[in-house]
Amino acid sequence: MNVWASSQRCRRRIQNYAFFLGTRYSSTVDNHAFAQSLLLPKTSFALRPNPKEIEARHRARTCTDLYKWQFKNLEGPQFIFHDGPPYANGDLHMGHAMNKILKDIINRFHVSRGRRVQYIPGWDCHGLPIENKALHELGEDSASLPPLAIRQAANKTALREIETQKEQFQRLGIMADWSTETTYRTIDHSYQMRQLRVFRDMVENGLIFRRYRPVHFSPSSRSALAEAELVYKDDHVSHSVFVTFDLNTTEDVTVFQTHHLVGQAIQLLVWTTTPWTLTANMAIAVHPDLTYVVLRRTSAETPLLIVAKERMDALADIIGTADIVAELLGAELVGTFYTPIFATLCPSLRPLPIITAGHVTSTSGTGLVHSAPAHGAEDYNAFRELGLLDKKEEILCHVGSAGEFTTQVAEIVGDDGARGLIGESVLDGGSRKVVQLLKDIGALVKIQRIKHRYPYDWRTDKPIIMTATSQWFANLDDIKADALAALEGVSFFPPVSRARLTSFVQLRSEWCISRQRVWGVPIPALYHIPTDEAVLDSPTLEHILRVLDKKGIEYWWEGPVEEFVPPALREAGVAVDTVWRKGTDTMDVWFDSGTAWSMLDERGNGVPRADVCLEGSDQHRGWFQSQLLTAVASAPPEQRTLSPYGTLITHGMVLDQKGKKMSKSLGNVTSPMTVVDGGLDLKKEPAYGADVLRFWVASVDYWNDVYLGPVVLAQAAEGVRKIRNTARFILGNVGSAETRAKMKRVQRSEMGLVERYIMHELRVLEQTALEGYSQYNFAKVAAALSNFANITLSSFYFDISKDGLYANALDSLERRATVTVLDQVLTTMNSIMAPLVPHLAEEIHEAFNETESSIFTIQWKPLASEWDDAKANEEMKMLLRLRTAVLAGLEEARGDKKIKSSLEAEVELLVPDLEQPSPFIELLQREENLLKTLFITSDATLIDEGSLGTTSPEWVYVSSAAIPSSDEDLTIRVRPAQLEKCSRCWIFTRLPSEPLCPRCTSVVQR
């Protein structure tokens, strides 16, 4: 049942009161005087306000002004919430909204409990999306503009997007100081200098190095990528090929002699999903412990074929009918050689070796793996372990910065073969043309179209490749143990997320931190032009950082190289710019945002540390990890096991209400600003305001993926409406702040059972809320709050207390007890709801206390433990079970049209003779005067069976209820009320000879 303003019973009652005031009441009694004597609800608190107007009125008070006030005035221990910077690129999406609202709930809770909160919103401003957006707006591409022009345009774009997002975050009611001076941006000079100093510390710790090796490379971005910048798609389609390589059996080696294979034509069958990498083939790998078979196929002229024995059945369609000629271990093949696959096109190619590699398995392919160390991390590591890669020049790579075949491919496939390859994308036309070359030379056995899991660039949504480039790396192997040790002292919510972050750290050995873009923080390395060797050491960095700190980061691009070369590297009489050049690589954006911990206040151990960080589950691969790694890697040895955060909280993704990922192409995107302001069709997309969106965030299990759509939003809106109506009922009945100040409060010892029970339930609610907030389980808070408002109050307490509130004397003990309880209920409920729905809480606080101060300036002080009343709770539970049985009888009478209102009836409870005393019967006897209030009937009495009168009522409905701890039942008789209806309170307690009932007579006569 809804609260007063929306319940059908109240509406009928108010209509009847209005009728009572009208001219149709024909009694000689002064009706107007009776009506004025009723204490009907009165409040200016709107039933259905305009959320846009209400939130705009309270926004400054509960957001920026509040943040400044609490930071200046609160003396409790400081709570540092470290904001993971969202990307400054476009309007907010629902993930942004959920993220910031969750953070705000936590911050507001701590403020309400008297802790000073440090929360500095930030933005991640570098990277490809912003650069591309700026270039798109200019109508240019990166190749046609100088670096400084690109940087200026990207900077302008980032600043504009920050202002848009900042305004939208404020519309969500996020408490912070949003001025430019008190937020952080990764393009701020002070931020970039701190980042460069972290980088310098990592260099001094010997953890930064440059290497030519395969990395994740995005042709669409023209840059190297870190693992955290990848997304994996399960529906990527590749054209895999089975190809053959000719084994050199002419050499007099043991394996050929042992198995009588000297001089025979033997081929190695190999399978690959990346045909384009065959131009960079440098070896074929086998597992030393696998058994391989030499197969003779049907035709005697067909060369023998070698595959892993365990793969024969899986390869039956490829091999055809074949007999085993010989079996040998992989270790026996190691050290033999084969002819390069494109040797017929380029005869000068030298034989290549068969090597051993641990990543070769018998679960896929043929058991022989084509190895191209330029295009595969496992191949590269296998070569390094074997000591086969000492120099950059030793790795074959024919792929350029756009993912295209370069002119060097001619060294492998000859000039004729390269004529159609050069300039072709290896992922598109280049791959197809390589397959055609394989056909032409007779090396192609079969081509298969397969769907498999493949990495994509998360920003461009295009596939990436593995290819060798010269990149800067951070060595993680040397700090991995320290990083994992640092995580041991971190709390995780939900707890299962610990394993996710730990596993990601365990799996990493290197971090590619360089990017081939101009919009970013430079890696300030100098390159020796004659040797192309990089210089990156502590003295050089100190000199460069002094220049950049004085003249700005942009000076790296616009200043002459002479200013960045320290005296120790200069040669007398030689022009500096002929010997040295500045590097053009920029840092990975995860390095940018990952060094945000350096701006935090230092704790007692001298280490910057946040109490809490909260981000989406994808940040286990991103920001959570990059913060940890940069903090540990740049720390002195004695501090390397200290984490930059104390607690990590993870939230899931926002899906549509069918569980699908939100996508513009699917048309299922819900914008947070549309929820707040409404859409083009307000009937389909109402303007709910920020509090409804916040209540939805608070009410879901955010640590999982969550659903959002019209139905879900409507449910959240209904939840907020019911809480609002609960507050409105209380505001309408407790009187003004001045009236309440003059009213004599009722002490606990003077309260009746119902009031003590409600206060007990309020205490339970508050403790539940405090526990929920402390455990970051806001759904627990929202559910408990809604249940208390809807069930305990609206459906029960408000219903039974209306008569006393409306008709009792203002200073009566019963009414004062109810008002005392309602006053505390609204105070406590408002403290509980304030972090979730701050605008509503501020509106209630303003109306309740007639003040313009923020509710958050009043510390939430929990109820004393004296309100824990187990006895009142137990007794009320018994009475409520009886009430349920009585209401069923009343409903039966109403269904038979014997009554319209329960006040037209009275209840008799027939108490049986019991052999043993019953606490329940004793309770009924003690609280007999309360029963009619509980049942909302005109009377309720306890009688024994022998006291039943001889006259029968006009009608009677008989039922029963079990007596606790007894085999006996209590008989319930619902019958017509025996007295007349009072013209003032409408309870049937008036004698026929009197105009009013005794209660109303005493009130009116005062």
UniProtKB/TrEMBL annotation:
Keyword Transmembrane: no
Domain Methionyl/Valyl/Leucyl/Isoleucyl-tRNA synthetase anticodon-binding: 755-908
Entry similarity comment: Belongs to the class-I aminoacyl-tRNA synthetase family.
GO (cellular component) term, any one: mitochondrion
UniProt organism field: Mycena albidolilacea
GO biological process, one term: isoleucyl-tRNA aminoacylation
Domain named Aminoacyl-tRNA synthetase class Ia: residues: 65-706
Known EC number: 6.1.1.5
Record has Heme as a keyword: no
CDD domains: Anticodon_Ia_Ile_BEm (cd07960)
Name of the protein: isoleucine--tRNA ligase
A single MF term (Gene Ontology): tRNA binding
